[in-house]
Write a structure and sequence with these properties.
With 70 residues, the protein is mainly α. The protein has three helices and no strands. The chain has one domain.
Length: 70
């Protein structure tokens, strides 16, 4: 089943996307300078990861636990 129709998989993809964009922005800030267009989506995901990092970390931890045990 694809990630669009399975909510658990969708959340996993979104959390991994946010974490990846935040990591890329921290190490290579020039890649995510544009705030518009296609790269703007990734800039926004990185911004969410920067601003809500405790909540994203809790979400990643809970997703990891649910993948391991459920």
């Amino acid at each position: 089943m694809s990630a669009l129709f399975n909510f658990h998989s969708f959340l996993t993809v979104v959390l991994l996307g946010i974490c990846t964009c935040t990591y890329v922005k921290m190490h290579f800030p020039a890649l995510l300078e544009q705030r518009t267009g296609f790269r703007g989506f990734f800039w926004k995901a990185a911004r969410i990861g920067e601003r809500l990092s405790p909540w994203v970390a809790v979400g990643c931890f809970m997703m990891g636990v649910s993948i391991i045990f459920f």
